[in-house]
Amino acid sequence: MWKSVKGAAYSLYARRLRAQLDGASLPRHVAIVMDGNRRWARQAGFADTRVGHRYGAEHLDEVLQWCADIGIKHVTAFVASVDNLRKRDSGEVDNLMRMIEEVVAERLTRSSSVWQVHTAGRLDVLPDSTRHALKLAEEATRHHEAGFHLNVAIGYDGREEILNAIRCLLEEEGRAGHSIDDIAQRLSADQIATHLYTSGQPDPDLVIRTSGERRMSGFLLWQAAYSELHFTDVYWPGFRKVDFLRALRSYAARHRRFGA
């Protein structure tokens, strides 16, 4: 009885939050730091906290549906940094990579998915099977025409992304026969941006980080320069639709000054 009453109250509250967003300014691009999988599993009583990665991977599918339903067409999901892959226990990393292959990549290639997949990060630091699964997902969704784009940030480091973008720009200009002095005179932020992983997409308007951490951890350092930030104490697998709607409501209530 109590569970049904609680469920009805939750549904009513979610509808009220959704109604408050009608006509509101919503982000075109939401970036998400999906943090707290292991802590959620520990809190839920699982002996093996690595199971949190499966719940976290499956939950991404649900959150993408919320974004699609409300019309948010660009999402960047921070799955794992280069440091995560290098410093964490090999068993945990193997488990995480398996979840990416079995859950994220597989579900995104279903015929019912509207998301076009893009990878953002160093694929060379990933296991061959994970790299292959993500490349297949990119190829399988390349021709999706709904205009929904998902960037999977894996093997990612924000400083390295900027460095690589500048390196690629210099190499491109060098092949065109331009001198260093000439390149320096013409160098612009827009030129660098065209060589970032998210080239051609709008910068994130809103960055959401779960688990209570209040830092960016090198995530989208260039692109998120003027993003609104939303931190929530909820662990990623427990991030509910009402938490998502609250983040959007908070965003809609802010006056964006873009650094001013």
TrEMBL record:
Q: Describe its function.
A: Catalyzes the condensation of isopentenyl diphosphate (IPP) with allylic pyrophosphates generating different type of terpenoids.
The record's family statement is: Belongs to the UPP synthase family. Z-FPP synthase subfamily.
Q: Where does Mg(2+) bind?
A: 35, 228
The kind of enzyme this is, by top-level EC class, is transferase
Binding of substrate occurs at: 36-40, 53, 81-83, 88, 209, 215-217
Query: Which Pfam families does the record associate with it?
Result: Prenyltransf (PF01255)
The free-text cofactor remark is:
Binds 2 magnesium ions per subunit.
Q: Which cofactor does it need?
A: Mg(2+)
Q: Name one GO molecular function term.
A: ditrans,polycis-undecaprenyl-diphosphate synthase [(2E,6E)-farnesyl-diphosphate specific] activity
Oligomer status and interactors: Homodimer.
The UniProt entry annotates the active site at: 35, 84
- From what organism does this protein derive? Paractinoplanes ovalisporus
Q: What is its EC number?
A: 2.5.1.-
Family matches, as SUPFAM superfamilies: Undecaprenyl diphosphate synthase
Highest rank taxon of the organism:
Bacteria
Q: Which UniProt keywords apply?
A: Magnesium, Metal-binding, Transferase
Q: What is this protein called?
A: Isoprenyl transferase
